[in-house]
Amino acid sequence: MKPWAGRFEKDTAGPVEEFTASIAFDTRLYQEDIAGSIAHARALAACGAISSEEGDALAVGLREVQRDIEAGAATFSTSDEDVHTAVERLLAEKVGDLAKKLHTGRSRNDQVALDTRLYVRREAGHLAGLIDDLRGALVDVAEANADVIMPGYTHMQHAQPVLLAHHLLAHFEMLTRDAERLADAARRANVSPLGSGALAGTAYAVDREAVARELGCCGITRNSIDAVSDRDFVMEILASIAITMVHLSRLAEEIVLWASQEFGFVELDDAFATGSSMMPQKKNPDVAELVRGKVGRVVGDLVAVLTVMKGLPLAYNRDMQEDKESLFDAVDTVASCLQVMAPMVRTMKVNAKAMREAAGKGFTTATDVADYLVRKGIPFREAHAAVGRLVLKCVQEGKGFGDLTLDEWKAIAPGVSQDVLNVVSVEASLEARAVPGGTAPARVREAIAAARAMLGRRSGG
Fold first, then answer.
1. Catalytic site residues?
2. CATH assignment of 362-459, given 1.10.3470.10, 1.10.40.30, 3.90.25.10, 1.10.10.10?
3. pLDDT digit string (tens) for 221-240?
4. CATH number of 109-201+215-358
């Protein structure tokens, strides 16, 4: 029997039963649902709504239900409608009619809000751990290749030389912000809505603060209407996940480029590449490509929930059931991507020679020459124009900076002398960028050490 069947003379139509049921996907909330139900049973006993013996019996029965679910001994059906109804039915099989008392002073509105909040809290922590693993992989590769020089790019054109470690630590910084966003989302989700009832609050004197403490929440919701109609915490973790996926996609895109014959900067381990069904020579970066492709579905998950929520009046509306599949899909997708990205990054082979050769192409030290002229007293704009003319001359004559004579160097501006040759090397360019956050080798070594320490603090080491 449906928990609301007393008002109705007819059974729900079969197609409606299937259309409205969420049991097919929300069973993954069973842990949170049972934890909230145990806390609620204790709160009912504490305020005298049920006896202490009944509260204890409900808690014991709920733990037995959890063991049955985890052992695969419990079965669910569409007639259960949702995980809340399913848990209550399974509880009735353990404690009989006493199960009917569990829902005293509680609505499925505050129940599902709690379950989803606890799920967000749990998964945010799990995803942050996976992000840390990828961050660790980036630091490992950076440290193992601390002296490798590569071209830095803007507009996908050679710009200035940088250390590979510096480039990889840029991805580390993105992922650090991702982990921080997840922590913020979890913190805001971690309040208990139990006691809010359907929308107006419960008429029973339950100790909402005690319930929150038992569930590990940092507090309670302040407004019962907001408590049951709020899904900001879902949208917030979805936004955090979507941004994380964008960052994973950017890293994946670079790996795809770097693994190509045109770049040849890295070679992927065989375990993280695939071949062609027709072309025997192929080694394709399919893992990175799939990560790059999956960002679309996660951004779609975020947009779906934003669209559901944007026109809903207060308080609860059944539309809000649509948040679960998007939430679960986004969590599963980003987790799977993180799980493959970390070992793929750790095992890829770096071609230091190819990177170093590329770093010397494309006049990547032109800015250093302009800075040299500035130190000779020439305004930067004039220095920029002079070096630009020199680059044009080199392009027209098929030369690089290393092919120029001292007379050709002297011709670009007054005051140029032999010491110009000290600033045009790739190594000199790196050393010159010694500001905090720059690509100078000493600064990058400091950054690697700081990243290691940051990961150690997060892991409790």
1. 155, 276
2. 1.10.40.30
3. 999 999 999 999 999 999 99
4. 1.20.200.10
